[in-house]
Design goal:
The chain is α+β, with helices and mostly antiparallel strands. About 15% of the residues lie in helices and about 30% in strands. It is built from 1 helix and 12 strands, in the order αββββββββββββ. The strands form 4 sheets. The protein has a 4-stranded antiparallel sheet, with no helix packed on it. Strands 5-4-8-9 form a 4-stranded antiparallel sheet, with no helix packed on it. It has a two-stranded parallel sheet with strand order 2-10. The longest helix has 22 residues. About 5% of the residues have low confidence.
């Protein structure tokens, strides 16, 4: 009975050449398939009044293809101005917290919080009825989240 033996001879230089080609392919693949996550470097303004629909300019990197912008988890409408800038509209129900931008690569979050200020209010006190050319004294005036600045409409005057 005759036995068949197979002998394999490996040419060392062919193996090294194939190995170099494989490594070059692997490195090229990894570099080309890596998506760099976006980051937020700043935003302006740093605060706005609630329900003001303020425009907030967000700057950073890799914003192209953004799929969401959130203020402390509340979705905002936005426009991608460039790969490094987004203009977002402060949502009416936004609260204090970070801003985040989501792209297919992941989510980047601001290091600093955005501050949502309550709306200022002013009260001139109780209701008064007066006759023409008479005087009225305002008492009990108060304000919250701001300062009162009185002005007249042109039909009267204000004396401090």
């Amino acid at each position: 009975m005759k036995k068949n033996y197979f002998k394999f001879y490996i040419n060392l230089s062919s193996v090294l050449k194939a190995s170099k080609i494989f490594h070059l392919f692997l490195i090229t693949f990894l570099i080309s398939s890596t998506s760099f996550a976006q980051s937020i470097s700043s935003f302006t303004p740093s605060n706005a009044c609630i329900n003001s629909s303020a425009s907030v300019i967000i700057t950073g990197t890799n914003f192209t293809g953004a799929t969401a912008v959130n203020f402390n988890g509340i979705a905002a409408t936005y426009t991608i101005d460039s790969n490094t800038q987004i203009t977002a509209i402060l949502p009416a129900t936004a609260t204090n917290g970070t801003i985040s931008v989501t792209t297919p690569s992941g989510t980047g979050t601001s290091a600093d919080p955005f501050t949502v200020n309550p709306l200022p209010t002013a009260s001139a006190g109780g209701t008064q009825t007066i006759c023409s050319n008479a005087t009225a004294t305002v008492s009990g005036a108060s304000s919250t989240n701001g300062t009162i600045s009185w002005s007249e409409n042109g039909a009267g005057s204000i004396t401090a």
